Amino acid sequence: MGWLRTNQTVLFIRKHRMAEGLLEEVDRINQIVEGLLSSQKPDRTGLSIPISIVKGHKASGTPRES
Q1: How far apart are CA 55 and CA 49, in angstroms?
Q2: Fewer CB within 10 Å: N-end or C-end of the chain?
Q3: Does residue 66 lie within any of the structural domains?
Q4: Angle at the Cα of 22 from the Cα atoms of 36 and 19, rounded to 5 degrees
Q5: Could you please report the per-residue DSSP string of 27-47?
Q6: Rg (CA), the chain
Q7: Would the pLDDT of 10 be above 60?
Q8: Residue 19 is assigned to a structural domain of this protein
Q9: Is residue 23 assigned to a domain?
């Protein structure tokens, strides 16, 4: 019976260490993502694309749905 308890304790410790390792990985990934997001500058061309599409529709005389 003592062996079973020891085995369960070892398994518990292994699971706990694995969970800690996963949390560390998640933290590392979050830091990478935050770094990527903060390094990106707002893209002005992204704003002009929808406007030019709308202008194109007006110019071609495509009827709009109201």
Answers
A1: 10
A2: C
A3: no
A4: 155
A5: HHHHHHHHHHHHHPPP-HHHH
A6: 28
A7: yes
A8: yes
A9: yes
Instruction: Say what the alpha-carbon torsion angle 44, 48, 50, 53 is, to the nearest 10 degrees.
Output: -150
Contact by Cβ (8 Å): 64, 57:
yes
Confidence of residue 40 (pLDDT cuts 50, 70, 90): low
User: What domain range is 23 assigned to?
Assistant: 2-60
- How many secondary structure helices (H) and strands (E) does the chain include? 2, 0
Q: Please tell me the total count of domains within the chain.
A: 1
Do the domain assignments include residue 17? yes
1 secondary structure, DSSP code: -
66 pLDDT above the threshold of 60: no
Taking the C-alpha atoms of residue 45 and residue 34, their distance in angstroms, rounded to an integer, is: 23
Q: Residue holding tokens 């085995």?
A: 7
